[in-house]
Every structure is written in structure tokens, then in C-alpha cells.
Amino acid sequence: MSHIAARTPGVAGSVPCAFTHPLELIPWFRRWPSSRGRDFIYTLIWSSLIALVFTGFALLFDARTPVLEALRVNMVFAQCIGLVIHALFMVGDVAFPGVHRTRLPIRFAYYSGVPIVGVFVGYSAGAFVLGYDDFLHWLFTPRGFASVAFVSLLISAVLLVIILQRERAARAETAVAQEQVRVAAAEQAAATARLKLLEAQVEPHFLFNTLAHVMSLIDGDPANAKHMIERLIALLRTTASSPDGPGTLGGQLGWLRAYLAILELRMGHRLQWRIDVPDELLDLRVAPMLLQPIVENAIKHGLEPKIEGGRIAIRAVREGTGVRLEVQDTGLGFDATRRVGQASLGLANLRARLAAWYGDAARLVIEDNQPAGARVSLMLPASGPVSA
Questions:
Q1: Which of 213, 286, 350, 365 could bridge across to 377 with cysteines, CB 3.0–4.6 Å?
Q2: Is 359 left (phi over 0), alpha (psi -120 to 50) or beta?
């Protein structure tokens, strides 16, 4: 009839128990977290339900029983007993804070003893309120004492069985949650390892091509060779300072600026690029290597094969509670490049990375760009990666 337990033993120490009040036997009432105010209201509701049940039994055994009178009497007794037990458990929780985590025999004695005392005190208070002096006298006879004690023990035993079942369920839920965390951590570690493998494949290829281009410029155009080495150093410095996990959008843009600056020296007038991102989004937390593969695909499969080259634009805008990252190019277009295995593989890896870091909260959209080229958009939550 009252507040029962606050915490129970878990898998690794103590975990919050999913059962803190008898009314939580009804799943709908588990929607609100336990508090003194909530438990007091729950006790009033629980006691009222018990009064209705006993009134129903009275009518079942004697249909001539006045309904309103029976409900009034049962309601007074139920509320008095429920509030007294509630108060006794509150006092017990303060006086014996560890009782809910102790051994089963002690808990059984506590859960049984408190209701027995509460029932006798509550019955006495109810009889006093209703003016039932004869009932009050009967209550303290051996027969009355035995009857009330038996009913109290029966109710306490049922509640204890329910509590133990809830404890086992809580331990099972905790074990499942811990396993899910372990699996998620393993998946994220695997995704990070795949990311590092991709970086190890991309960076040497780009580095060797750049160094070969520098070698070709040293004799005929030493000034441009120097500029390219300076930008390559800036790119390597940005790469070395990049975090293994989530970083900022500004950090990724720094890498892209150095990357595009090198390609601009290599491609000359065939490459034009622009980055349009407001300062307020530079500190946005994003998963690693989101824009790099998109830009690399746009350059390698869209602009470089095109004789006249083209333009690439990178932008970011807020959209409601999310952020849209967009890469547009005027190259050959996605239809012309989707047959290229490496481009498709890069996009597949990007989709897998989005799923690993954002779950269902991110989207990748590939569209034609008018009048030519492709537009790739990433819709991300502004709150950052879910797995961060």
C-alpha cells in the first residue's frame, strides 16, 4: 500500500530498481521517475484501488450491501493504512538507508514488519475516524491480531516476490545495456580502424603524386615548386594534428584548404574552388573524414577528366535543428562517374561512417548539379555525432 524500495543490487554494484512503488506494477505508472511527491500521490491512488477492490468483494458476497457506505468505510481504512505504511517506509529509509540492499531474510523481515505495524496503526486510525469502537476492541483480540497479521504477511510475501522478479529483470536489462555499449564501442573501434586504413591508402598516393610534381617544377619553375612544398607542409601539419575521433568542421576545412591549394598549383586554371561556411559553424563537432572523400571524388572523377576542368564549392548552412554540408562541382556529373569502382566504394564507406557515428540521424543525398556536375549533401544533427 505504500513506497517499497529505492535501490536494489545490480550487475556491478547498485543500480536503480525499476520498482519503487506497488503502483508501478501497472506499466503506465512507470513513466515518471520516483520522488516523494509522486510516491505520495501513488499511495493515495493505490489505496483507493484497494478500497474499490474490497468494496467489490463486499458486494460479491452480499449484494444487499449499500455501495456508497461500503466504499466510504473501505476508503477510510485503505487511506489510513496506506498513508501510515508510506510514512513508516519513509522513516525506515532514513533510519536504515542500506536495508534495500541487504540480505534477503532481512529485507523480507523489513518488508513484512513495516506493513504489519502499519496495518494495525492504520486500522486503529480508521476505526477512530469512523467511530468504530467495537472494531477497535476486536482488532486487539488474539483472533483479530492473527487475522490482520496473516493478511499483512500474505500481501507482503506477494509484493516481495514481485520485487525480486523486478530486481532480476533490472539486472538483465543492465546486462543487456552493458553488452550494447560494448558492441557499440567495438563497432566504433572497427570503424576508426577502417578510417585509418583509408587514410593510409589515400595520403601516400596523394603525397607521391605531389612530390613527383614538385620534382618536375624544381628546374623550370622553382618558385611554384617552393609554393607547393610550403602548402604540402601545411597539409601534413593539419593531418598530423587531426584527432582520431570527432573533430570540428573548421579542422576539416583547414585540411581541405591545404589540399585544394596544392591541387590548384597542379591543375592551374582548370581548378577553381570556394569554401563558404559561416564562422558560427566552424566549431561544430563532426565525425572524422566526412568532406574529404566527397571532395576527392569530385576532383578525381569529376573535374580532372574534364578537359576544361571546373569549379568546386563547399558550403554549410543551418537547417532547423540540423546542419547541411554541401559539395558542388561542375565536372562530368555523378552519372558519368558512378561506374567508377573507387568512387562508388568511397561513397559506400562514407555511408557506413555516417551510420557508425550518427545512426539514423544523418543522411547522404547525391543529385545532379545544374548546368553540369554533381551535388553531394550531408544532413547532420547540430548536436554532433551520436557515438562521440
A1: 365
A2: left
Q: pTM above the 0.85 mark?
A: no
Contacts of 76 (CB under 8 A, 6+ apart): 126, 129, 130
pLDDT tens sequence across 115-173: 888 888 888 888 888 888 888 778 778 888 887 777 777 767 766 676 667 677 777 77
Q: 371 preceded by cis ω (within 30°)?
A: yes
pLDDT band with cut points at 50, 70 and 90 for residue 380: very high
pLDDT the model gives residue 240: 57
The mean-pLDDT minimum among 121-130, 233-242, 278-287 falls in: 233-242
User: Rounded mean pLDDT of 298-319?
Assistant: 89
Higher pLDDT, 12 or 1: 1
Q: How many CB atoms lie within 10 A of CB 223?
A: 8
Lookup result for grid cell 547498485: 14
Q: Residue 332 phi/psi, 5° resolution?
A: -75, -15
